[in-house]
């Protein structure tokens, strides 16, 4: 089966042949067949070093032997139950230990985690309004996408205020006039779509302070950034968020989302309280995700986090030294090149799978030689574009 044949079949059964807007690259992306370590093989047999890692989720690359063993054992013992399992308790205990956030709930994606955090924040404060910053991506939930996006009802857009990225003055103005309506201020400390630049610590401190003084909750979206520190990027800023959303690396390669935070806030979900917030999810906290995710996090301790960040810092430094515009922090590197689609294909032909916006996410199976190969492919792709 050729790529064109598969694409044509896809177009007959899926709109535009696509089921995941975020990974589309025109005219149509290649099809993956298998992955091992940091290498992915596509349907034509072309092999690429995977710097996409399913949009930063696969911290240990593909088919890590230990994770395959854990997942296989979990599947063999029953993949999902209409009862809780010990695995969710173990995963929550580990996240508590790593982040210092005492209370946790799980779901199936980062999108759902943001939905759950905002529902919880609205319930806990009795307020409706959510504040977000332009250019920050928080998944596909109505309330956090661009209010002008097709399909988003005006009534939802009315319950959200979008402020300029990193603008503490705008936040102060808004909270002065409408502070008593605001349930949550949603912050990404290194927003990928806004350029993957770490937030200015002075802005973060002011935003946290203003939010607290308005009686609103600070929700930090760590769906991508959790991998940058053992306890997530907020720990680097010394922040104490009310709620944190996680996903991606926490699932060990399987679908996952989670919300952690202060017990008083998350207690609004407790079935032991009067009139709790209801939140289901047929596959939430399934033992395959929980057990494999817990194992993946255990393989990503302080030493591994630091080593991977050092590799990313080296890659970013060497690219910047050769005049390539780059951003990011640690194991997340972003190429700030015009025409990301064309760059994506040039990288792919040179053996590197990037994110469609130029994001390069490193994984633990990568060696120094792999990182050198990625650097050389980027340099060649950039020269190819000149
Ligand atoms: N928040 C952030 C910061 C993200 O980058 C993403 C996805 N890339 C999400 C939320 C949504 O996560 P998911 O794709 O698992 O729904």
From TrEMBL:
GO terms for molecular function: pyridoxal phosphate binding; transaminase activity. Keywords: Pyridoxal phosphate. The keyword Flavoprotein does not apply. It comes from the Bacteria. Residues 1-21 are annotated as: Disordered. Its cofactor is pyridoxal 5'-phosphate. The keyword Lipid metabolism does not apply. InterPro entries: Aminotrans_3 (IPR005814), PyrdxlP-dep_Trfase (IPR015424), PyrdxlP-dep_Trfase_major (IPR015421), PyrdxlP-dep_Trfase_small (IPR015422). Belongs to the class-III pyridoxal-phosphate-dependent aminotransferase family. This is Glutamate-1-semialdehyde 2,1-aminomutase. It comes from Geodermatophilus nigrescens.
